[in-house]
Amino acid sequence: MALVAALVAAPAAAAPPDPPPAGPPAAGPPPAAASPVDSPAAPGSPAGEPPAGEPPAITPARRAAAIALAAIPGLAVPGLGARVVGERRAARQLLALRAIGLGMMVVGGVPLLVTYGSAKLVVPGVHLSVAGSGLFLVGWWADVYAAAGGGAGAPRRRAPIELVADATWIDDEFHGGRELIGVGGRGHRGRWTLAGRVAGAHDGALAQARVDAAARVWRPDARATGSGVDVRAAIDAIRDGDDDLVTVTGELAARGRLHLGDLDRALAGSFVELDAGLGLQAVDYRAGDADLAGVLISRFAGGVFLPCARGEVAVFYDHRRDTLAGGLPAGRAAGFFGSVGATAEVAITPTWIAAAAVEFGSARLATLGVRRGLR
Fold it and tell me: Is 0.85 surpassed by the pTM of this model?
């Protein structure tokens, strides 16, 4: 909902002006090419200045200063870097995005703090706090991105069917090093997407299977900018022979992605992604006991599309602690945080895609894989 509100509240990015109508060229000799040193000045303006209505050129020194200001004081002053390079509209949009995020953090986090994590407030409080943190932090990072000049990346057009093979290395203090070899596939048609994956260790001590289904329920318009909201359902099963247990988790969640270029073209090529949902997990201990518990699904990510629509790179925070990565210890506070990580996919050819991911929680995970698109 936060992504929908941000899109609705912000006007569409300014479109470039229409080209003049075609016509016969004017009579006379062609104009001489402008010298890169002696560029033409607007009538009435001093020589060497840009024509009226055009933004001044950004020098390397000014660009570096904007990046530094966006990265350090920009954490507290939204849109500072974009404003320094003359992108005032982008600065206003980032101010609004981060204000929404800060408001969600306050509305969700303060009641949890005051009530010491009341069970009645955990679900809405954590969802609001995590989503608000995502909007606030990605808005800060997007300011650095705009100050650096932004980009023109676009989402990769996925093949209707993709086959996947990957290898995952897992390391934690209790089990030491383990590995999984996985195969899977993904297909989509219209608004529907279905994916599945199975993976196992060479000694059979660890195995995982997962099935995901998703439906696109909203997108701002017919443009393929990457913005939209999906509702997804999943079943995930893990058998851990070392711990002598089996877990089966059912999930239902919404995932929204906002291409920040829909807010302003200075932010084109960057995006923010939010997940919110619930799950139900059954744990079967081979000793004879079993548990049934709820799972809170809350996640945010921010990233950029690669040039020429060749893929994307993103960093994320996942509040779940029941995955193979586990969660980071909260220090003196009770309990755990979630995990942090990064993902990347790069199209090597139109049909072959390389993918990689790392994740850090109570365990460390690294995954390398390859995908083959079938059209």
Answer: no
